[in-house]
């Protein structure tokens, strides 16, 4: 057991180094703390991840979920999905994580079954669309964690976003409003890392 966990830590460290060297936007350690706390509280059985990158967050989520967890992870880039698969194959969670390559907005229309945990971390301008599309695929106690919701300080701050980020910032504000004002959820926004929204589904 010890050996297995040590191997996973080594693999994750290797992945972090690769991500940093190749400028892959994997979750930073401050954001990871918030994500993993939410996973540990939920101990999910069926996880949907939107935005795999190299599989870093997926492996962390797998390590803190229920023993029988199944993770579906969506990734647009074929190249990144291949790298992710390579890492996942070297992990103890090889048979628990399935990567689906393609546009997440499209993949979300083809889901089946219900998920008790969702990690939103793909195209930042698409978060409201992702939120709408997952509604019919959530268990009644589902938890949704969205990363990067404070996007470099432009979402809540007083500093105006550069032109190229304007749409992203507008959509992230829309996302925060959607989850905060929704009577079906209790949401907490964390400033850790690039900002995370943790939304827990409650009975209306
Ligand atoms: N969750 C990962 C990081 C994801 S980075 C981690 O923390 O380890 C965001 C990823 O979303 C990138 O790999 C990018 O290729 C992917 N992405 C961007 N647009 C997408 C889309 N429309 N559909 C699916 N994936 C997308
Ligand atoms: Mg992120």
What's a quick, concise take on this entry?
By secondary structure, this protein is of the alpha/beta class. Helices cover 41% and strands 22% of the residues. The chain has a seven-stranded mixed beta sheet, with helices on both faces.
Structure write-up:
This protein is an alpha/beta fold. It has a single domain, classed as 3-Layer(aba) Sandwich (Rossmann fold). It contains seven helices and seven strands, in the order H-H-E-H-E-H-E-H-E-H-E-H-E-E. It has helices at residues 2-21, 29-42, 56-64, 78-89, 104-107, 127-134, 166-181, and strands at residues 46-50, 70-75, 97-101, 115-120, 138-147, 185-190, 196-201. A seven-stranded mixed sheet has the order 3-2-1-4-5-7-6, sandwiched between helices. Helix 2 packs parallel to helix 3. The chain starts with a helix and ends with a strand. The model has no long low-confidence stretch (mean pLDDT 95). The structure holds S-adenosyl-L-homocysteine (SAH) and magnesium ion (MG). Residues 25-27, 51, 53, 56-57, 74-77, 80, 103-105, 121-123 line the site of S-adenosyl-L-homocysteine.
């Amino acid at each position: 057991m010890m050996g297995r966990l040590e191997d996973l830590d080594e693999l994750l460290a290797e992945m972090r180094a690769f991500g940093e060297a190749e400028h892959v936007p994997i979750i930073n350690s401050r954001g990871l703390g918030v994500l993993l706390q939410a996973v540990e509280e939920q101990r999910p059985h069926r996880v949907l991840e939107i935005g795999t990158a190299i599989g870093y967050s997926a492996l962390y989520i797998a390590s803190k979920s229920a023993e029988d967890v199944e993770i579906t992870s969506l990734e647009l880039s074929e190249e990144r999905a291949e790298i992710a698969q390579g890492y996942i194959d070297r992990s103890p969670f090889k048979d628990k994580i399935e990567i689906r390559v393609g546009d997440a907005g499209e993949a979300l229309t083809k889901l089946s079954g219900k998920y008790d945990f969702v990690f939103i971390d793909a195209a930042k301008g698409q978060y409201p669309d992702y939120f709408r599309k997952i509604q019919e695929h959530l268990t009644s106690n589902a938890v949704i964690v969205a990363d990067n919701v404070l996007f470099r300080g432009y979402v809540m701050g007083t500093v105006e976003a550069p032109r190229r980020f304007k749409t992203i910032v507008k959509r992230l504000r829309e996302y925060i409003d959607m989850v905060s004002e929704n009577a079906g959820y209790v949401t907490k926004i964390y400033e850790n890392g690039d900002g995370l929204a943790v939304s827990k589904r409650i009975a209306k």
